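G., the chain you wanted modeled:
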Amino acid sequence: MKPVNTKFNLNDSLDEMDQILKSGDVVMRKENYTPEDTKGARGSIINASVVSAKFIPVAKSNQSPENWARANDILLSQIYAMVACQPQLLNFEWDGCILHAIFNTTHKEHIDALLDTVGKILSLTDVINYKVAETGWSFRIKAAIDYKKALSVPIDKDTTLWKVDGLYEIDELLEDLNTKRLIISKFIYNNLKESYQALFEGLEPFDSKTYQADIVNIGINNWLKEQMGEK
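Predicted structure as tokens:
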């Protein structure tokens, strides 16, 4: 998936969620899909920050296909809208279950901004769960951030393929999370500003290699709290 030159707007996102929930029948289609042939090319290696996020569906019993479709329509479209417009984004893959996103973080302030982005993703997931509650579905999210070597391979003027070295290691970090929703590597932690570091705790008592936290986007979280009657 390619980055887009637009800004994410929570009000627009909320309106679209409502439109999806109020939409008519869900059309089931069975069609064959054949990907176009592509030709490989030599690419470039960069160092970049990588976000891996896992969205785990949780459902009440006896859910209809229509409610499943509407809940996942909202998850797919709104997480896409949030991630695709981030300024440091290089590439991302999003299938509704796993999100892998590569960010250009050449300066420390870029890593701070990336943490802000992940906070938006976590908070938007909370909003999505609030909006889709009537469908009987919700989504648990776990996220990880690390700094890795990435390969970009141009296919044509509009298409570039990406591979992250050790992506599976980032995915495995998600399994270390229990009560928290975000885990980061020591490299990411060391390059955050002190006020952001204070949000995290080490997974190990001494010289931790990974750090965990629950973070939110204040603006999005305040909207949700207002809707739920919280102060």
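The first strand starts at residue 44 and ends at 59.

Shout if anything looks off.
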